Input
Amino acid sequence: MTVPSGRRERKKAATRQKISDTALRLFLERGYDTVGIRDVAAEADVAVTTLFSHFASKEALVFERDEDFEQRLTQAVTGRAPHEPLIPALRREIRSLVRHCTADSAAPIWRMIDESPALRKYEESMRLRHAESLATAIAADPGLSPTTTASRTIARFVIDAHSLAREAADPDAALDEIFRMIEAAWEVTGPSGPA
Amino acid sequence: MTVPSGRRERKKAATRQKISDTALRLFLERGYDTVGIRDVAAEADVAVTTLFSHFASKEALVFERDEDFEQRLTQAVTGRAPHEPLIPALRREIRSLVRHCTADSAAPIWRMIDESPALRKYEESMRLRHAESLATAIAADPGLSPTTTASRTIARFVIDAHSLAREAADPDAALDEIFRMIEAAWEVTGPSGPA
DNA sequence: GACCGTAGCACTAACGGTTAGCTTTTTGAA
DNA sequence: TTCAAAAAGCTAACCGTTAGTGCTACGGTC
Output
């Protein structure tokens, strides 16, 4: 009972990591579509069912680290300095996230994602989830009093900003431009403006 | 060659319609997930391969009519009265589209969509396509001179407006609120404002 | 009216992601 | 040592989707 301390957790994490590493390597070597789940499982030396007990789908193998994304966004809202305005805090976080995924080391992965319809679809559905988490965080902020609609709308806009900036020729410039628009949209939601 | 006039077209359209009607009926009767492609094909009295020659995927059976959506949006931009500002024209069109899919007759279909992850995913990827068409239409407007980023951003925001308003408790009120935000975002994209 | 190209449809068989059902091994604790 | 549960395994399937192949009906042409 209680906490399954020690070895068990480590072994499980190791198995998960091995599967993830193997999958990403094979996908990049041979292409996402040409590598099958059975290939990944064989190369990682696990059963197919084991693979699916660690990852909900083939696409999830590629987006392994996306819980980070969601957490960092909500953290940027709930954990910002007292009296710091909402939008600049979000802008800073989004900028950091965009830089992270436009870095050279991440480029091959994102090229692979952009080329696979299945992966793009999956990313889209992730964005909806992220937007809803962010909306909840914004709505719960004690310093603000946005309507439900306003918080959900701003959350969507912010997620859009990430997606659009990531694809832009000049991500930093695009981000500035988009956040100017978001700032304007945010300001009309309350006569008192951001806290 | 030329146009395969007459009977052939009618027969093809009839087959397509029969498949679509049968599918929607079965989905609503028994649930999207519990009805298989083979069930639909059998009930419509066609082969599975025939079904897939008319519809690209199972989800496409549900969203049969959504070529309209894309066309109506771009039409709202390219076909609006001379000197009519962009955002109000879009707002009018989105309002009409939202009303159409919150109507009582469409309610069961949208409930089904909201309950099926596969259908939600599909809808999400459709939204991306719609946003890109709309962005292209906005960018091509002779009366405006938005940057690429601005037109893509506004397009996303408008698509978001549809999706958010559709789910809101009071769609009309939500739409007003969101479009106030979009209007503000649009105004900061050019010092001269909309044409 | 006979002829031919092609569009539409059918059928079988498979592929690839995913899951259910059940057994075996490993691990932590009594 | 013993036991319960977690983790991993195997088999066999389900389901959406596609390839390959052939048949039939239609439309245009001589």
Observations:
- Residues 1, 4, 8, 11-12, 15, 46-50, 53 of chain A lie near DNA strand D (CB under 10 Å from a C1').
